[in-house]
């Protein structure tokens, strides 16, 4: 029976306020077992933190219990289809976690005006399809919201109308093809936004105070025209369509400290062009791990020199003379050890740092350029020769083939030059036929 069940009652005294935590997680318990059998053994009125993670509740109704002091309710990883707060006028609930459940919609009696103090709400990994304008209307002091991993079809443009205090918003993997322009307008205090793994192609209008943004796994190609002067961390990993990143696009993110562009499988161009050594003055972490980069132009040298951690691992590096400058940089040793060459053949699989610079040669570059030079020289020479030949022949020919007007005839005459005795041919025009 339940009298034998070990119930963890932890009493934490924090000044005058006592936190009473009841942890009943991962017991495979159904709601009947909790409400009917277990509840009489615990005085829930005093409990401030109730942890019911990893059980088999299919719904949660507050009426069967007394949760007057409850601040934190964790119902994650259950089978919830519904939950309600109906029986008390006002709750003190601050934290509610219903992630990893089976919620298809949020009932009107779930997030209502009886729970006005809620600050942290986790709705992630459910089956929600709509975030409409009334779902969160009573959540006026909400600071943290996650609706990640839900198959959402429709987000109303006024869904976050009343969330002026929101600081952290996770909308990753919600199947959104776009975010309506006014959606984030009221979120003036927002510092964290995750919109990763959504098939969006353009970046929405973002709250200006953002410090951390995750746009990984989206189809966004260009980042220009976004104004995020406070941004400190930007994640843009797994961007499948990205072929080129010009760091100049980040020129106005002067507070950026961490930039991660990992596993972008066709990203082959990574540059600062036109060169600008003042871009990203505060950067401390830069990662382009696992992309398709073969070489790095040395317009990146200033930024690499002053960035504490640079991660260039797992790219198909072509270790020729163009990589000598990377070799000379003192990148943080752990990552430098991991820059493996893919080509040319003789360096395949080698660590760049272990190849002496004199062995980083541009063979292909040279063999590529010499034939071109030789071809050009040959073509130019041929053109000159043909030109000379043409001029030589064409000049006299015009004279020979253009007889004088009238019936004048043209004939050759052999004459003996008294001074040189050479036989020369001269062109003589005579009025009469040959003598
Ligand atoms: C629970 O605690 C409250 C307040 O301390 C008290 O009034 C109530 O009688 C207790 N109930 C049970 C079942 O112990
Ligand atoms: C909610 O619970 C899930 C699963 O236990 C956990 O991963 C997540 O961090 C929790 N959310 C919050 C906001 O604490
Ligand atoms: C929002 O969705 C809930 C749950 O599906 C529904 O009860 C409510 O009527 C909807 N609100 C509006 C304005 O459509
Ligand atoms: C994305 O969300 C869907 C449900 O909408 C879920 O099945 C899938 O596992 C999620 N993907 C990840 C990577 O979490
Ligand atoms: C954003 O969400 C994705 C998917 O849920 C997760 O993998 C990633 O770590 C999140 N980003 C941040 C910065 O927490
Ligand atoms: C991005 O790539 C996907 C396939 O991975 C393709 O369906 C989509 O049209 C591409 N988007 C753009 C803007 O190129
Ligand atoms: C940065 O700001 C300047 C001045 O407002 C603007 O002219 C420029 O286009 C911005 N750069 C980018 C990449 O958005
Ligand atoms: C790189 O580090 C080595 C020793 O760790 C030092 O001898 C060398 O001068 C450094 N090079 C540069 C360019 O800082």
TrEMBL record:
<keyword id="KW-1133">Transmembrane helix</keyword>
<dbReference type="InterPro" id="IPR032675">
    <property type="entry name" value="LRR_dom_sf"/>
</dbReference>
<dbReference type="Pfam" id="PF13855">
    <property type="entry name" value="LRR_8"/>
</dbReference>
<keyword id="KW-0433">Leucine-rich repeat</keyword>
<protein>
    <recommendedName>
        <fullName>LRRCT domain-containing protein</fullName>
    </recommendedName>
</protein>
<keyword id="KW-0812">Transmembrane</keyword>
<dbReference type="GO" id="GO:0031012">
    <property type="term" value="C:extracellular matrix"/>
</dbReference>
<dbReference type="InterPro" id="IPR001611">
    <property type="entry name" value="Leu-rich_rpt"/>
</dbReference>
<feature type="transmembrane region" description="Helical">
    <location>
        <begin position="373"/>
        <end position="393"/>
    </location>
</feature>
<dbReference type="InterPro" id="IPR000483">
    <property type="entry name" value="Cys-rich_flank_reg_C"/>
</dbReference>
<dbReference type="InterPro" id="IPR003591">
    <property type="entry name" value="Leu-rich_rpt_typical-subtyp"/>
</dbReference>
<dbReference type="GO" id="GO:0005615">
    <property type="term" value="C:extracellular space"/>
</dbReference>
<keyword id="KW-0732">Signal</keyword>
<keyword id="KW-0677">Repeat</keyword>
<feature type="domain" description="LRRCT">
    <location>
        <begin position="315"/>
        <end position="363"/>
    </location>
</feature>
<dbReference type="InterPro" id="IPR050328">
    <property type="entry name" value="Dev_Immune_Receptor"/>
</dbReference>
<feature type="signal peptide">
    <location>
        <begin position="1"/>
        <end position="18"/>
    </location>
</feature>
<keyword id="KW-0472">Membrane</keyword>
